Amino acid sequence: MIRSVSIIGAGIGAQHLLGYGALPDRYQIHSICDLDAERGGALARTHPDVTYGNDYNAILADPKVDVVDICLPPHLHFSAILAALEAGKIVVCEKPLVASLAEADQLADKVAQTGGIVSPVFQYRYGLGTAQLLALIEAGLAGRCYAGTLETHWNREKPYYDIPWRGTWAGERGGALLGHAIHIHDLLAWLIGPVAQVFADTATRVNDIEVEDCAALSIRMECGALITSSVTLGAADDTSRMRLLFEGFTVESDHAPYSLAEKSWRFTARAPTTQTQIDAVLAQVSEAKTGFAGMFEALADTLDGQGGRDVTLQDGRRSLEFVTAVYASARSNLPVALPLARDHPLYGGWVPDAARER
Ligand SMILES: NC(=O)c1ccc[n+]([C@@H]2O[C@H](COP(=O)([O-])OP(=O)(O)OC[C@H]3O[C@@H](n4cnc5c(N)ncnc54)[C@H](O)[C@@H]3O)[C@@H](O)[C@H]2O)c1
């Protein structure tokens, strides 16, 4: 079945369009919706038969639209997702999904009522590199994970913050932890999770903004692995990197900031596992669709009854639970154990009260 998609928001929505466009036998692009007619219209014109509109409610009312892909600023996600579920649409929504565990649980209630689907965007998971690592784990060559390092070392300068919602608690709902490092932290939890505890330090050092742009995290996984995660928006270039030290090998990811798994990852055998054993498994791993195309393909598979690879609402909630724990730890200067109970002081959100009232 080919599903008809409307993309709401023409910023990162342009990359989503390319992702859907790479899957012509699974999706067709119906429309681009954006309040900015110049931006939205220009994006719509890049694809044949794609219409432009500026009215989200009209998209929701259109029975020809199957999938609503929300690429709006973070503070608009919650209400836009609820409305799309009410309208019976399949929902894809950019990160961060919403701004609290309470909102994530309200979405889960709405999904239960409507029978809908919400797929949060975590495109890092898709590509050759992760397929290789999963194949080696599946083949029994990984063993226990001892430790690891994560780097989200990106460069964001003043012009990036000219868009008014960025850099603010009210608009962005968080800083580098919520907006940038959320990808690599999702990847970690997906590969070797869940997280058992986090101890975090955050700071605003690079730009004159309200939210954090640097962080140092110490993470204990439930499996026992000890992970450190370094985050800054003050790097010379945009580099992401994951190194995981397993009993059977050490793996280092590629460094691409937006599609970490697109290229081959580097696997080094650790005795008694041999490089020959590793290479034999890797030789069987075929090219995989990467980034947004990989994610949208996995969603289409699930919608067609072959589930298991898509990003779920539970995954989105888990990423927000981690963010909640990180802010709780940074503010208390204490380690925070997960999962968080519903009576946790930040269950209703981490955005400071003064910013909410604005
Ligand atoms: N997955 C990723 O790698 C990735 C990368 C960049 C951004 N994002 C996320 O995508 C989201 C959007 O980010 P962006 O950088 O594209 O933002 P942006 O501000 O560049 O684009 C948002 C667009 O939404 C439009 N818009 C705002 N309100 C609207 C409304 N009510 N109806 C229709 N259109 C409306 C704006 O006119 C604007 O063009 C954010 O949540 C961000 O965190 C994800």
Structure summary:
The protein has 358 residues and is α/β, with parallel strands linked by helices. The protein has helices at 13-21, 37-44, 56-61, 77-86, 101-114, 128-138, 176-179, 182-192, 275-282, 291-303, 313-332, 353-356; strands spanning 3-8, 27-33, 51-53, 67-70, 90-93, 118-120, 145-155, 195-203, 214-221, 226-232, 234-246, 249-252, 266-269, 336-337.
Write the SSE topology:
Layout: E1 3-8, H1 13-21, E2 27-33, H2 37-44, E3 51-53, H3 56-61, E4 67-70, H4 77-86, E5 90-93, H5 101-114, E6 118-120, H6 128-138, E7 145-155, H7 176-179, H8 182-192, E8 195-203, E9 214-221, E10 226-232, E11 234-246, E12 249-252, E13 266-269, H9 275-282, H10 291-303, H11 313-332, E14 336-337, H12 353-356
Parallel strand pairs: 1-2, 1-4, 2-3, 4-5, 5-6, 7-10
Antiparallel strand pairs: 7-11, 8-9, 8-14, 9-10, 11-12, 12-13
Helix pairs in contact: 1-10, 4-5, 5-11, 8-11
The structure holds nicotinamide-adenine-dinucleotide (NAD).
Q: What does this 3D model show about the protein?
A:
The chain has 358 residues and is an alpha/beta fold. It is 33% helix and 24% strand. It is built from 12 helices and 14 strands. The strands form 2 sheets. It has an 8-stranded mixed sheet. The chain has a 6-stranded parallel sheet with strand order 3-2-1-4-5-6, with helices on both faces. Strand 5 (90-93), helix 5 and strand 6 (118-120) form a beta-alpha-beta unit. Helix 1 packs across helix 10 (291-303), helix 4 packs parallel to helix 5 (101-114) and helix 5 (101-114) packs antiparallel against helix 11 (313-332). The chain is globular, with a radius of gyration of 20 Å. The model has no long low-confidence stretch (mean pLDDT 97). Nicotinamide-adenine-dinucleotide (NAD) binds at residues 8-12, 33-36, 39, 56, 71-74, 76, 94-95, 121, 123, 163, 179, 258.
